[in-house]
Specification:
Layout: E1 6-9, E2 15-17, H1 22-27, H2 31-57, H3 62-69, H4 73-79
Antiparallel strand pairs: 1-2
Helix pairs in contact: 3-4
Length: 85
């Protein structure tokens, strides 16, 4: 296990460590686990693209889509990942 740099302590005396990047986290995973993570990421990306495509196919605004599925317009916006431009 690699060491992490201490950033100090919190009010309760617990050590605060610096966060690691995704790249660092991925390096620490086995090749098989990295493959599973990448596959899941692709599934999530495909789902987001499908939501955007469905909204466009139904000629709905983000607000209309949000009302239809019971989330906020910002939720639809984030799910579409700014691809509506």
């Amino acid at each position: 296990m690699r060491s992490r740099q201490s950033f100090g302590t919190d009010q309760e005396g617990r050590e605060i460590e610096m966060a690691i990047t995704l790249k660092e986290k991925m390096k620490g995973l086995s090749a098989g686990r990295r493959k599973k993570v990448r596959a899941r990421a692709q599934q999530l990306i495909a789902k987001e693209m499908t939501m955007q495509e469905m909204r466009r196919a139904r000629k709905m605004t983000q607000i209309q889509m949000a009302k239809e599925i019971g989330i906020t317009q910002n939720g639809v916006h984030c799910a579409c990942r700014h691809r509506d431009r």
